[in-house]
């Protein structure tokens, strides 16, 4: 009653048509500007961020998987290398053993051969010596007998001297 | 008592509907209310353009605020009410939410002190857009016949019941929804302003009293006004949220198949 005197008393549920127009235009302008220039970029940024996070997670997962695969591969390779090394070691051991036995066998064979050769040459020498001795002893016996027969047998002293001489001759012959 | 007090002080007591219609500044087109609406539009355009002029994946503070509002509307309203389909409506819902929130908050902004939404014209505009939107989407998605059938006929009731149910459903879906949407927002802002007027102006009226006890009581009136101002902030944001949520819900039912 005191203030409303200035204007027409409005029923609050009856809209002022100018305000309907202004509200429509203003809100339409707001919608146009924001939905054309701001909101699409905001949604794009939203998606980009989701992508960045999810993509990062995916990349991390992929990297993890790759690392696991590599690790597995290295483990497999390592195991392979280990068995290989063990095999080489075993081979080497076996080789060394066989070489040793081979060398031993060869040495034994060689020594046997040398011993046999020595024995043979000894036997040959002996036979040669025996043959020579037999011839010489025969000769000597004949020589001695002829000397004994050729000398006067009366003189024992001389007989003694003859034998003595013979033996000396023998000795000098042996010393020669 | 109050009548004589006001007569002495010249204060507008008791608060009346007339308080919502201050004199025009320059004809019916340029009033406090139309200027406030333009102000809200300006504030929002400047805020969003400034904060999103150069968006980055790692946001600046302004960009983060803008995105938080968008994220709230997109995930908590659009997706909550409409599922995956709702996301393409999120830009409009965000604009709607921001516009209602800012104009509502004018009700507790010093110097403005009243929300444009306490004039029913503005809620009517917003509710009409929602109304047209959900009707159009419903008809386009399902065809006029199927959309009407889905909106009006509840399946699985005995056929004589339809004489009763179809008018009720019609009233509910095609009249009550837009009217309540507009009136709810308008009434909240109207009542909020009235409450603040009662406690603030009432405080001054009591202070102007000759009686010392009445003057002392005015302190409670002012305290109450401050409390109600905070309450109005809550109401302002809540009503924006409710308006957008219901809009999303209505459009969601238009998109949905079956009743």
Automatic annotation (TrEMBL), chain A:
F-type ATPases have 2 components, F(1) - the catalytic core - and F(0) - the membrane proton channel. F(1) has five subunits: alpha(3), beta(3), gamma(1), delta(1), epsilon(1). F(0) has three main subunits: a(1), b(2) and c(10-14). The alpha and beta chains form an alternating ring which encloses part of the gamma chain. F(1) is attached to F(0) by a central stalk formed by the gamma and epsilon chains, while a peripheral stalk is formed by the delta and b chains. SUPFAM superfamilies: F1F0 ATP synthase subunit B, membrane domain. The chain crosses the membrane at residues 20-39. Belongs to the ATPase B chain family. Keywords: ATP synthesis, Cell membrane, CF(0), Coiled coil, Hydrogen ion transport, Ion transport, Membrane, Transmembrane, Transmembrane helix, Transport. This is ATP synthase subunit b. NCBIfam families: ATP_synt_b, PRK05759.1-3. Its main location: membrane. InterPro entries: ATP_synth_B-like_membr_sf, ATP_synth_b/b'su_bac/chlpt, ATP_synth_F0_bsu_bac, ATP_synthase_B_chain. It is found in: Cell membrane. It is a single-pass membrane protein. Pfam families: ATP-synt_B. Residues 53-91 form a coiled coil. F(1)F(0) ATP synthase produces ATP from ADP in the presence of a proton or sodium gradient. F-type ATPases consist of two structural domains, F(1) containing the extramembraneous catalytic core and F(0) containing the membrane proton channel, linked together by a central stalk and a peripheral stalk. During catalysis, ATP synthesis in the catalytic domain of F(1) is coupled via a rotary mechanism of the central stalk subunits to proton translocation. It comes from Micromonospora andamanensis.
UniProtKB/TrEMBL annotation, chain B:
The chain crosses the membrane at residues 33-52, 89-108, 120-139, 190-208, 220-244. The keyword Chaperone does not apply. It holds the Pfam family ATP-synt_A. It is a multi-pass membrane protein. CDD domains: ATP-synt_Fo_a_6 (cd00310). PROSITE patterns: ATPASE_A. Signal peptide: none annotated. InterPro entries: ATP_synth_F0_asu, ATP_synth_F0_asu_AS, ATP_synth_F0_asu_bact/mt, F0_ATP_A_sf. It comes from the Bacteria. Keywords: ATP synthesis, Cell membrane, CF(0), Hydrogen ion transport, Ion transport, Membrane, Transmembrane, Transmembrane helix, Transport. It is found in: Cell membrane; Membrane. Key component of the proton channel; it plays a direct role in the translocation of protons across the membrane. Belongs to the ATPase A chain family. This is ATP synthase subunit a. The gene is atpB.
């Amino acid at each position: 009653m005191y203030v409303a005197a200035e204007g027409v008393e409005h029923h609050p549920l009856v809209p002022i048509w100018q305000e309907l127009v202004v509200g429509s235009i203003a809100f339409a302008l707001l919608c146009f500007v924001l939905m054309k220039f701001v909101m699409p970029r905001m949604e794009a940024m939203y998606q980009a961020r989701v992508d960045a996070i999810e993509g990062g997670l995916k990349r991390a997962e992929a990297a993890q998987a790759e690392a696991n695969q590599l690790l597995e591969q290295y483990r497999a390779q390592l195991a392979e290398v280990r068995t290989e090394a063990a095999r080489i070691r075993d081979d080497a051991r076996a080789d060394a053993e066989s070489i040793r036995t081979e060398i031993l066998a060869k040495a034994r064979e060689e020594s046997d051969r040398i011993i046999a050769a020595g024995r043979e040459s000894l036997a040959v020498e002996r036979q040669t010596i025996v043959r020579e001795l037999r011839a010489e002893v025969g000769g000597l016996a004949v020589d001695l007998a002829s000397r004994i027969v050729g000398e006067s047998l009366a003189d024992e002293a001389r007989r003694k001297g003859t034998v003595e001489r013979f033996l000396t001759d023998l000795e000098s012959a042996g010393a020669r | 008592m109050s009548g004589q007090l006001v007569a002495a002080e010249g204060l507008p007591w008791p608060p009346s509907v007339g308080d919502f219609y201050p004199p025009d500044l320059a004809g019916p087109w340029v009033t406090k209310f139309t200027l406030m609406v333009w102000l809200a539009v300006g504030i929002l355009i400047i805020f969003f353009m400034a904060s999103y002029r150069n968006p980055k994946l790692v946001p600046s503070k302004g960009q983060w605020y803008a995105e938080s509002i968008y994220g709230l509307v997109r995930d908590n309203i659009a997706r909550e009410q409409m599922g995956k389909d709702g996301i393409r409506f999120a830009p409009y819902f965000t604009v709607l939410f921001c516009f209602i929130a800012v104009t509502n908050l004018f009700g507790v902004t010093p110097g403005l002190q009243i929300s444009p939404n306490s004039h029913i014209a503005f809620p009517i505009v917003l509710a009409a857009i929602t109304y047209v939107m959900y009707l159009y989407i419903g008809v386009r998605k399902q065809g006029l016949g199927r959309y009407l059938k889905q909106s009006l006929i509840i399946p699985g009731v005995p056929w004589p019941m339809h004489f009763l149910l179809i008018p009720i459903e019609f009233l509910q879906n095609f009249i009550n929804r837009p009217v309540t949407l507009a009136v709810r927002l308008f009434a909240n802002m109207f009542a909020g302003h009235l409450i603040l007027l009662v406690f603030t102006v009432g405080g001054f009226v009591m202070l102007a009293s000759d009686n010392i006890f009445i003057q002392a009581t005015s302190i409670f009136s002012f305290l109450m006004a401050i409390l109600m101002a905070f309450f109005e902030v809550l109401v302002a944001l809540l009503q924006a949220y409710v308006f957008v949520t219901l809009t999303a819900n209505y459009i969601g039912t238009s998109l949905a198949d079956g009743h």
